[in-house]
Write a structure and sequence with these properties.
By secondary structure, the protein is mainly α. It has 4 domains: 9-178, Tetratricopeptide repeat domain (Serine Threonine Protein Phosphatase 5, Tetratricopeptide repeat); 189-268; 294-394, Serine Threonine Protein Phosphatase 5, Tetratricopeptide repeat, CATH 1.25.40; 398-524, no CATH class. 63% of the residues lie in helices and 5% in strands. The chain has 28 helices and 6 strands. It has helices at 9-12, 16-19, 23-31, 38-50, 54-66, 75-86, 89-101, 108-120, 124-133, 141-153, 157-173, 176-179, 189-205, 209-218, 224-236, 240-252, 259-272, 275-289, 295-307, 311-319, 327-339, 343-356, 361-373, 377-389, 420-436, 452-460, 463-474, 491-503, and strands at residues 398-403, 406-411, 481-485, 508-511, 516-520, 523-524. A 6-stranded mixed β-sheet has the order 2-1-3-4-5-6. α5 crosses α6 (75-86), α7 packs antiparallel against α8 and α8 (108-120) runs antiparallel to α9. It binds one DNA strand of 10 nucleotides through α4, α6, α8, α10 and α13.
Length: 530
DNA sequence: GTAGGGTTAG
């Protein structure tokens, strides 16, 4: 029995007893023969939920209810957990209602499970309401973690950190810290692997890949996820050689790579243009490691071939795939068509993307850029009016830079920042210096058909340039500048920042939406390959 | 019986 994630399980299982052919369920029924015993049902539901058979777990829950057995408090956490796993809000609400009817909704296990369920279904305010309703004396580490994770998984890091501070405060008030006066938390081995892996990931995503490696080396116990996090970290920093070296080391150490490990390996290859290496792993992962390439692996391979300019090969790969191409696959091809200025394949990819993701404005912008680059202004206009008709707004680019513990944000063409006049003046100064070292404005990222001067103005105010100028003006000479940008850095900004690093003799690290660029002495770690 | 780490396109 396979259901799509969005379908509501509890409402479609009314005939489960007649139609269920599921072997797991049948086996479990045979194992727990007493159908009239609620504890038998609890065990069945728990076993299925723990084993990841969420649909079956909910079927069992539903069957049990139809026998008019009265659920106990332990019936609900597993049933609700299954709703979480399926992101099935409808069934989750039904389970919530029933827990309420039987008076178990105040149980801390039930409320923690409900917080998780509402969060996973994107209903954060409902989750928070439940969290706030848990009396302090019974609120435990799992309730806190469920709520924290809810914020994190819904991209609300700010709320997560605020809540974490609240947690620390409550801990110290309740004497949690006095028992651990050294603030030492005792972890078991499994917990330490989870924390270690998170630390690796955190350092990698903050641009400190060497600190990540240090943490990795210090971990006594590692598992496949720890290795994969480190491999992926090298990949996003364009250090493909180290990513692959670590991958070989991992195999040698007897750790079996999994599906995601291969995504990370192929992604590392694509950031460095290692076409041969990429083909090798795509072709051998199936028979050597028993992991058949899935849509994510093809996505990386299309990206790899596309960036390397092998657009036809990339397109042929998509056409020959056993799995259905998704938006990542077509998005990779479209991105490659922008880099290598291929209008025809770009149109094919865009057409697919408009079907798959009709509300994503990014693809319209990309296609429009491809047209602009080819001087096809009528097509540019057509694409832009299509966007307008569908009320799709271009995502505004912004950049963040941290200075003495405070984060400064810049929008495209920002005129809000208190120092914006000085910043623009300084950018003018820099521009003169850049032209002295041979810089010519790159126009390919401008989608409007306007005169030369206006084009240059449009480019000059991209948020990353503002952030870089601001950071240079306000930081100690020689210190490293770190920028975070929400979109990909454009070709012109990449060139400008590269040259700025030479002119002002600064290291500049830019993390764009997916990866890192290290600018130093007029060069970038990506070797201008991205 | 509840929670917690790694991946791909723009």
């Amino acid at each position: 029995m396979k259901l799509s994630k969005s379908s509501s399980v509890l409402s479609v299982v009314s005939n489960v007893d007649k139609h269920s052919t599921n072997t797991n369920l049948t086996t479990l029924f045979n194992k727990y023969v007493d159908k009239n015993n609620v504890f038998s049902w609890n065990s069945v539901i728990a076993d299925l939920a723990r084993g990841g058979d969420s649909v079956e777990a909910l079927c069992a829950f539903s069957s049990m209810r139809k026998l008019s057995l009265t659920p106990t408090r332990s019936t609900f956490p597993c049933a609700i957990k299954s709703c979480s796993a399926l992101h099935d809000l409808h069934s989750g609400k039904q389970a919530h209602q029933q827990a309420f009817i039987f008076g178990f909704h105040r149980d801390v296990f039930v409320s923690s499970a409900l917080i998780d369920m509402y969060s996973k279904c994107g209903e954060l305010s409902d989750a928070r309401k439940l969290f706030d309703e848990i009396p302090q004396r019974i609120r435990n580490i799992v309730s806190w973690t469920s709520m924290l994770t809810g914020y994190v998984q819904n991209d609300n890091a700010r709320e997560a950190l605020l809540l974490f501070k609240e947690f620390l405060l409550e801990e110290s008030e309740c004497g949690g810290a006095s028992e651990n006066s050294d603030n030492v938390i005792k972890m078991d081995l499994e917990e330490s692997v989870i924390v270690g892996t998170s630390i690796i990931d955190m350092y990698c995503k903050c641009g400190q890949v060497d600190l990540a490696r240090k943490a990795f080396n210090q971990m006594k116990e590692k598992n496949v996820r720890s290795w994969t996090a480190m491999i992926a970290g090298y990949g996003m920093h364009c250090r493909a050689r180290e990513a692959l070296d670590l991958f070989y080391k991992m195999i040698k150490a007897g750790v079996r790579p999994n599906y995601i490990t291969f995504v990370s390996v192929l992604s590392a290859c694509s950031h460095a243009g290692l076409v041969q290496e990429g083909w090798h792993w795509l072709n051998t992962m199936g028979h050597e490691f028993n992991i058949e390439p899935g849509v994510e692996h093809y996505g990386c391979m299309v990206d790899l071939l596309g960036r390397a300019g092998k657009l036809k090969e990339a397109y042929d790969l998509i056409e020959g795939m056993k799995v259905k191409a998704d938006f990542v696959v077509w998005g990779s091809l479209l991105g490659a068509c922008r880099i290598h200025k291929n209008v025809d394949l770009g149109e094919i990819a865009a057409k697919k993307l408009f079907e798959l993701e009709p509300n994503n404005c990014g693809y319209h912008v990309l296609l429009s850029n491809i047209y602009a680059n080819a001087g096809r202004w009528e097509d540019v206009e057509r694409t832009r009016s299509l966007m307008k008709n569908r009320r799709l707004a271009k995502t505004p680019g912004f950049s963040l830079v941290e200075l003495r513990g405070k984060v400064h944000a810049f929008l495209v063409g920002d005129k809000e920042h208190p120092q914006h006049e000085k910043i623009y003046e300084y950018l003018e100064e820099l521009n003169v210096k850049l032209q002295e070292v041979g810089y010519v404005t790159d126009m390919t990222s401008v989608i409007h058909d306007v005169d030369q001067e206006e084009k240059e103005m449009t480019l000059r105010i991209h948020s990353e340039k503002l952030a870089v100028a601001f950071a240079i003006m306000n930081s100690v000479p020689g210190s490293t500048i770190r920028i975070i940008k929400n979109l990909r850095v454009c070709g012109d900004c990449h060139t400008v920042i590269r040259l700025i690093s030479k002119v002002v003799d600064r290291e500049i690290v830019v993390r764009d939406s997916k990866r890192f660029h290290y600018f130093k002495d007029g060069l970038c770690s990506c070797g201008d390959y991205w």
